[in-house]
Every structure is written in C-alpha cells, then in structure tokens.
Specification:
Layout (H helix, E strand, L loop, with lengths): L8 H47 L6 H10 L1 H40 L1 H4 L3 H17 L9
Helix pairs in contact: 1-3
Length: about 150
C-alpha cells in the first residue's frame, strides 16, 4: 500500500489493518444478507407447500393435518433445515456485528490519533490519504460518526 511519502510505516500499517477489517466486515455483511434471503425464500416456499398440499386437503381436522405433517420425513427434514438456517442467520448476524464494532473502533482510533500520526508537513497532506481511503475502500476518515 502506497499512501505517499507523508505517511510513515506505522501509520501505513494501521491503515492497512483498517482496510483489512473493513473487507472482513463487508464479507460478513454479505454472507449474513445472503443467508437471510435464502432463509426467507426457503421459508416462504415451504409454507406455500404446506398450505397447498397439507393444510388444504386436510383442513377438516387438526389431527389429520398434524398426522400428515409428522408422517412424512421430508416435512421434518425441511423443518429442521429451516430451523438450522434461522440459527445460522442469527450466528452470522452476531459475527457481522462483532466485525463492525472492531472496524468502527479501529476507524475511530485512527481519526482520534490523526494528530499523532501525521505531524508538521504531513498534517497538511493527510487529506490526500483520507480521500484515497474514501475513494478506493469506502472508509471515511474525515469524521468519526458512522
């Protein structure tokens, strides 16, 4: 990573770590989103299937509906699969939140320590680094709010 001659090696390493955390957060966010959408679509189609092929023909009795639902191993398998998908979605959400916290904490640390990281002439040129980080990696170092 070349951030210019106004950025020393330690600052460059901090910025590289920030980029790495941002990329990990973006991957976790995308994985959570894909899992969430897959879970929602699978749930919708399974509920449609159950409504059309189990509830419709056997709606005269709850016992008949329950018996038909439980008698098929396919229904139980899909139900367990959906429960697993909902659990995976929840776990991926927690991981995404953890990665976002780590990324935001490091980003705020870089912003707070910017006076220590860029001294004298480099202080006047730091906006070039900030603009590069914003343009290339979508990391805003101009202010600390999300």
């Amino acid at each position: 990573m070349n951030f210019g001659e106004w950025t020393d090696q330690a600052t460059g390493q901090m910025l590289y770590n920030l980029i790495d955390k941002k990329q990990k957060f973006d991957r976790a966010k995308a994985l959570h989103l894909y899992t969430l959408w897959a879970t929602m679509f699978a749930s919708f189609f399974f509920l449609y299937y159950v409504t059309k092929f189990v509830l419709g023909p056997y709606s005269y009795s709850f016992a008949a509906v329950f018996s038909v639902f439980v008698s098929s191993s396919f229904h139980l398998f899909i139900t367990m699969l959906l429960v697993g998908l909902f659990g995976a979605t929840r776990i991926l959400y927690e991981k995404k939140e953890k990665k976002e916290k780590e990324y935001h904490a490091l980003r705020c640390e870089v912003i707070d320590r910017s006076k220590d990281l860029w001294k004298e002439e480099a202080w006047k040129k730091r906006h070039h680094v900030y603009e590069k980080m914003k343009k290339e990696w979508d990391i805003n170092l101009f202010h600390g709010s999300k």
